[in-house]
Amino acid sequence: MALIVMKFGGTSVRDTKRIYNAAGIAARTFNNGDDVVMVVSAQGDTTDMLLEKAEEITRAPSLREMDVLLSSGEQQSMALMAMALGELGVPAVSLTGWQAGFQTNRAYGSARIKNLDTERLAAELDKRRIVVVAGFQGINRYDDITTLGRGGSDTSAVAIAAALNADRCQIYTDVDGIYTADPRIVPSAKKLQAISFDEMLELATLGAQVLNNRSVELAKKYGVELEVLSSISPAGGTIVREVLEMNEGMLIQGVAKDTKVAVVTILDVPDVPGVSFKIFSLVGQKRINVDIILQATGREGNKDIIFTVPAADADTVRGLLAENLPRFGGRDVSVTTDVAKVSIVGAGMQSHPGVAARLFEALADENINIRMVSTSEIKISVIIDAADADRAVRAIHDAFMEDVGR
Amino acid sequence: MALIVMKFGGTSVRDTKRIYNAAGIAARTFNNGDDVVMVVSAQGDTTDMLLEKAEEITRAPSLREMDVLLSSGEQQSMALMAMALGELGVPAVSLTGWQAGFQTNRAYGSARIKNLDTERLAAELDKRRIVVVAGFQGINRYDDITTLGRGGSDTSAVAIAAALNADRCQIYTDVDGIYTADPRIVPSAKKLQAISFDEMLELATLGAQVLNNRSVELAKKYGVELEVLSSISPAGGTIVREVLEMNEGMLIQGVAKDTKVAVVTILDVPDVPGVSFKIFSLVGQKRINVDIILQATGREGNKDIIFTVPAADADTVRGLLAENLPRFGGRDVSVTTDVAKVSIVGAGMQSHPGVAARLFEALADENINIRMVSTSEIKISVIIDAADADRAVRAIHDAFMEDVGR
Fold it and tell me: Which CATH number covers residue A40?
């Protein structure tokens, strides 16, 4: 007898048919003798509908009240799911975030789980019921409702799996696993049977449709084995876990593309100590994530400082730096969002020095210009023109074809 | 400085415009220096929409899960209301049933309030915030969500007013008060300035569109003064309170019609002791409310037992009695729902013996046949053919015109 946590996202519960599909998956596992906790998101476009209602009321809603509003969506889908399970003859009970024991910090809209009090959850499982938990929500120390932000239901599921020491945490979604590249760009992309947490985190842009980074981090921290699979054809998804079997070959797990990136260039900054610190502490204060950083020699002993930030922060960074340009003596600031980051990810990469060369060759053959390069132990990323991105993904995937996936 | 509890029903919060209208009423009172608790229902047809979703899933939903589902509607409207108040520059906070301290028994779908822990409510009022409370809901001792059943938001509002010793409990709705008769039937119907709790309870069918009996009973029990008024033009509604000023004239507060009634006749029951007890304990076991009871002499020393029940229970009663007819020796059971109950209500009635005669005269002039009569200290009810009901209401209202309302 195992304990399985199953998370069903918004599309997987969007209407009565899908609710019954999900309920059927859970019921089969339950009837096999396993204990089951289901974590559900709000139905299909419920959240969008609620956001619209709030938008009609005000453009600057209270974050606290927004969480009260949005959390009602999961409450509805969990009740409907429990009713469907009942109709299938399976004993079930639904629990909201606070009923399930999710205690968070007070950050409305992006709360972090501080504690999960599993007393009620465990008691319901002891009664041999499927427990349907509202994802995405908890309460803070003031007994106020909070939500966990984007991908919050994944995080809820992983937290429950960790706290109850579940045998597996299954993420049911509308794709059937993690692929070596986006199949819409690379038709020959292969589904991965397994991937490590670190690789999954680096492949964030591939997994973003499926797995939120926060939930992967949490799963890694608590050693929760994740399985990403389709709620329509649940066989054979992708498993995300700590240690993969060793494998002789050089392993590339996937090729990912991120077009939501901006390149910031500060021209002719005096080459004196402390100037980089000034710039990046300024950007850091605004909680903006800097990714790749590059310094180039500029004119007359000056240097150019080039770095990437999320495209969403481009305007903020531009304004911030323009305003403070005198403080670090730069000549000009330019920002472009007309770029893309293409990355290859794989744990075996570091011990195979030829990887970067093969990547560069593949891009050169396609006449694609590389603006910036960044490497880590399990990743190589290049910044290229946005227009070249899909072609680059295909070229790289082809070049590593034999080594991609496992 | 006063404490005012304001309840806004589903139509009064059905869209952004109505939400702002309600928020404006509360904000004006708040800005005058008063403390305000708002109790809100689910928006317009939200509850119907949720019922439809549940109906799609199953015809026999778990009552517990139904309460989880339905209570989300009030949670949404309270959040939107708090946002609107914020936009109007008024500090506000929304509280669900459990956050507001509503502890109920475990009767899902029709729970009774056992206790109202006002700690949080009082703390929020102390911070000079408008507190927006979700009507209709609470939690039971298992920390499970319950709903209070029909008219539940009125009950929530009265309970808060009682527990906080509020100066007034205002019920905002889409009519502007309680009338001496339904204005759609009697165009000359007058709005009552005030009415006593007992009269209001007897006028249930007039007030049903506006005030639920349970909330009036609760208000009477705790001496909470109610005010029924329109959320569109809030001036001069009807006040419902314990003792009205004495008034010399004979006072009829209103003429009410109830078409949701059934007359049950059991023919030729042997006239022996205990037979009535058998019949009515049988009906009582099914929790069916018997209203008017009449015994008539039947054939050969037998008697006919005639009584009224809610039309909704007609089939149940018919089946129950037919099945048990041998037990009390009756000859036949007949049930008709083609009747109406028309009542006049007024506290001054008892000391004016001519009232019944005037009522009968008014009906006789209209050639309306009276099937049954029932009187209480403040009410006279007649059962007549359903087809005559509206004509009867008009005739009676006209007959008492000078004495109706105050």
Answer: 3.40.1160.10
* SS3 track for B222-255: HCCCEEEEECCCCCCCEEEECCCCCCCCCCECEE
Distance, in Å, from the CA atom of A124 to the CA atom of A131, rounded to the nearest integer, reads 7
**In this structure, is residue A40 part of a structural domain?**
yes
- Partners of A299 in beta bridges: none
Give the three-class secondary structure for B204. helix
CA angle (A398 as vertex; A395, A402 as ends), nearest 5: 155
Interface ipTM: 0.83
Distance from CA of A39 to the nearest CA of B (A): 16
Smallest Cβ–Cβ distance between B53 and the set A73, A80, A87 belongs to A80
Within-domain flag for A36:
yes
> Has residue A360 been placed in a domain?
no
Give the three-state DSSP class for A102.
strand
Identify the domain containing residue B41 by its residue range: 3-174
Domain tally, chain A: 1
Q: Do B80 and A16 touch (CB under 8 A)?
A: no
Rounded to 5°, the CA angle B88-B93-B97 comes to 135
Is the sign of the CA dihedral A75, B115, B44, B87 positive or negative? negative
DSSP per-residue letters across B93-117: EEE-TTTTTEEE-S-TTS--EEEE-
Owner of token pair 């949670």: B75
CB contact under 8 A, B57 and A87: yes
**DSSP H stretches of helix in B164-224:** 197-202, 204-207, 213-222
pLDDT by residue for chain A (406 residues), tens only, comes to 899 999 999 999 999 999 999 999 999 999 999 999 999 999 998 999 999 999 999 999 999 999 999 999 999 999 999 999 999 999 999 999 999 999 999 999 999 999 999 999 999 999 999 999 999 999 999 999 999 987 899 999 999 999 999 999 999 998 889 988 888 899 989 898 889 898 898 887 766 667 888 899 999 999 999 999 999 987 889 999 987 665 555 568 889 999 999 999 998 888 877 788 888 888 888 888 888 888 777 677 788 889 999 999 999 999 999 998 888 888 889 999 999 999 998 876 766 777 888 888 999 999 999 988 888 778 889 999 999 999 999 999 998 877 665 4
With CA atoms as reference, report the closest residue to A110 among A151, A69, A76.
A151
pTM: 0.84
Tokens of A360: 């560069």
Residues within 8 A of B (CB atoms), A 64-93 only: 64-66, 68-69, 71-73, 75-76, 78-80, 82-84, 86-87, 93
User: Can you say whether residue B300 is alpha, beta or left, with left for phi > 0 and alpha for psi between -120 and 50 degrees?
Assistant: left
Within a domain: B196: no
Which chain A residues contact residue B19 at CB under 8 A? 57
| Cα B382 from Cα B373, distance rounded (Å) | 5
